[in-house]
Specification:
Elements (H helix, E strand, L loop, with lengths): L1 H22 L1 H22 L3 E5 L4 E5 L5 H15 L1 H26 L10 H7 L4 H28 L4 H25 L5 H18 L1 H11 L1 H4 L6
Antiparallel strand pairs: 1-2
């Protein structure tokens, strides 16, 4: 069922994004940035749950966010494709600020005393008590890797304009691999087996990043040549 949910969610968001960009151009960028920020926020929350990633011959274990974080990479590709590098860069900084605000608001709620009848306080505190080191590692990896993704995507688009699959897969491969390495090293060096964690994240993120490429190509087809040409102007 997990792959069905994954495919339905990605199909729905891709279709909605393309329809809004095409029918209401003035709302297109805002819609894509909204989905981008939503993906990122959910990735931060879902990373608190470690899940099994069965491959048949081997089972990897990784944070639940590995199923969602490649959506983040695709969303920035969609922004870059339609509106160009500068818009993608702006979206990255906006998304980063939303993550800082999200953490501050979580801390705000954590300082409030729980209601006497709320029986899930201990579990809630555990879920939303990420350490400073993990939060800092997540922020640093996000900023660095997303900016690299946007720059590589833009460069590949200029150099190979007809090869949409290449710029999507190439930028995502570098982004997702670098993110896995940076985050694990910054967050867990000296306290966990970083090699094992890196391997699990690199494999699972890139597998999902590869699988979602057809949706990016479908997004371009839904837009048509006129709307895609918007991204040629920087």
């Amino acid at each position: 069922m997990v792959w069905l949910y994954w495919a339905v969610a990605l199909t729905l968001v891709t279709w909605i994004s393309a329809k809004v960009v095409k029918r209401w151009p003035h709302m297109g960028l805002a819609t894509l940035v909204a989905f981008y920020c939503l993906y990122l926020a959910l990735s931060q929350i879902l990373a608190t749950r470690i899940v099994a990633f069965p491959l048949g011959f081997y089972t990897l274990y990784a944070p639940g966010a590995v199923f969602l974080y490649p959506f983040v990479a695709q969303a920035i590709d969609m922004i870059n494709e339609t509106y160009g590098f500068k818009a993608a860069q702006g979206a990255i900084f906006i998304a980063f600020l939303t993550q800082v605000l999200m953490v501050l608001l979580i801390l705000l709620v954590r300082t409030l005393p729980p209601a006497p009848f709320f029986g899930l306080e201990e579990s809630w505190q555990k879920i939303f008590s990420q350490g400073v080191r993990i939060t800092g590692a997540s922020w640093a990896a996000f900023l660095i890797c997303q900016l690299v993704d946007a720059r590589i995507f833009s460069w590949l688009k200029a150099r190979y304009p007809e090869k949409a699959w290449l710029r999507s897969m190439g930028s995502d491969l570098l982004n997702l691999t670098l993110d896995s390495i940076l985050f694990v090293i910054l967050a867990f060096w000296g306290i966990a087996p970083v090699g094992t964690l890196i391997l699990g994240q690199v494999f699972s993120k890139n597998l999902i990043g590869f699988l979602d490429t057809p949706w990016f190509l479908w997004y371009r087809r839904l837009l048509g040549k006129e709307e895609v040409a918007l991204g040629q102007a920087e």
